[in-house]
């Protein structure tokens, strides 16, 4: 399985869309104009999951690092870094660095080590890129050795130009809670330029993407007919697993995923299990390998989570919607229950008073998790719902 088959990175024969090419040049021009800025200039690229944001970021960073070696370039010998707070995506970037001429593994790291090192050396970078910026810590987190108020302000203090990719529908922890309004508050006083990618490239059928969005907002609709996409609803987890394995044998890169609604312990030596009807499979283990979880053949027999699959492309995704996602027939609504969500650390109360409604923010976290999982598959999506009412409703809609 090649790297380009399993991630957001384009194969050599593929090309950026016209919009992606335009934004690539826009970012390079913005960076060149603000290289000597006294107050960090910030470029914000936003868009939904699967819109190709990371493709643009990776392309720009590769071109920038290439230009650092040219004496004729304004970027000659500039000090540039790409940061991401997600273990699996960081591994992807490290793997990319080993396959290109201009990228070095040391240029990719997590925000906290970057911040601590630059502070210790009293240095300032020229250009910093942040992928999945919605995962930046927005409060102190002793567990991750971060003691400042938030990572965004710290990074802006340590660079002349900052380029961030953000999707506020992929915020998955309250300790990294960001919204458009909160971001704008922190960017006040900085030169800012924004761009948006709104074309869905992973799930290219507009009706299917709209169906997923409707489910997340609480309204179930009949399954759309898609000529080039397989959408299936399952009455039990075993046939869902068989469907995923069959596609993995033919197409590769097909995995079972689940909302974080089942017991687990980080770093546990003993397996923790996900149950879906008659199916019982272990959660993904903490991935100590350099290869991303989904690209390891043995993980076909595990259940992936947002912590192993976010930012990753699958060919076929089998998604288990756990007990926190239910259906209420009387109101014809999908209901999200934070109290049933097993990953309670993601919903822990924040110290800052920047959440207008904490319960609403917790529900938004759950919706974001479902959004991330349902939009992983490029060619197919299978769904099993633990809640009987939701499962019955989905099966009924599948027959229409």
Molecular structure report:
This protein has 400 residues and is an alpha/beta fold. It has two domains: 195 residues, Rossmann fold, CATH 3.40.50.300; 194 residues, no CATH class. Helices cover 33% and strands 20% of the residues. It has twelve helices and 15 strands. The strands form four sheets. It has a six-stranded parallel β-sheet with strand order 3-2-4-5-1-6. Strands 7-15-12-8-11 form a five-stranded parallel β-sheet, sandwiched between helices. α2 packs across α3. The radius of gyration is 21 Å and the shape is globular. The two termini are 37 Å apart. The N terminus is likely disordered. Pfam families: SLFN-g3_helicase (PF09848). This is Schlafen group 3-like DNA/RNA helicase domain-containing protein. It comes from Liquorilactobacillus vini DSM 20605.
Summarize the structure.
With 400 residues, this protein is an alpha/beta fold.
Shape call: globular
The named CATH superfamily of the largest domain: P-loop containing nucleotide triphosphate hydrolases
The level-1 CATH class of the largest domain: Alpha Beta
Helix content: 25-40%
The oligomeric state of the chains shown is single chain
Q: What is the spatial order of strands in the main beta sheet? A: 3-2-4-5-1-6
Query: What's the architecture of the largest domain, going by CATH?
Result: 3-Layer(aba) Sandwich
Q: Specify Rg, calculated over alpha carbons.
A: 21 Å
Report the mean per-residue pLDDT as an integer. Answer: 88
Uncertain spans, ≥5 residues at pLDDT below 50?
Answer: 1-13
Q: How far apart lie the N and C ends?
A: 37 Å
Report the sheet with the most strands, covering strand number, pairing sense and barrel closure.
6 strands, parallel
Output the CATH topology of the largest domain.
Rossmann fold
The chain-level structural class is: alpha/beta
Q: How many strand units?
A: 15
Order of helices and strands: HHEHEHEHEHEHEHEHEEEEHEEEHEH
Give the count of structural domains: 2
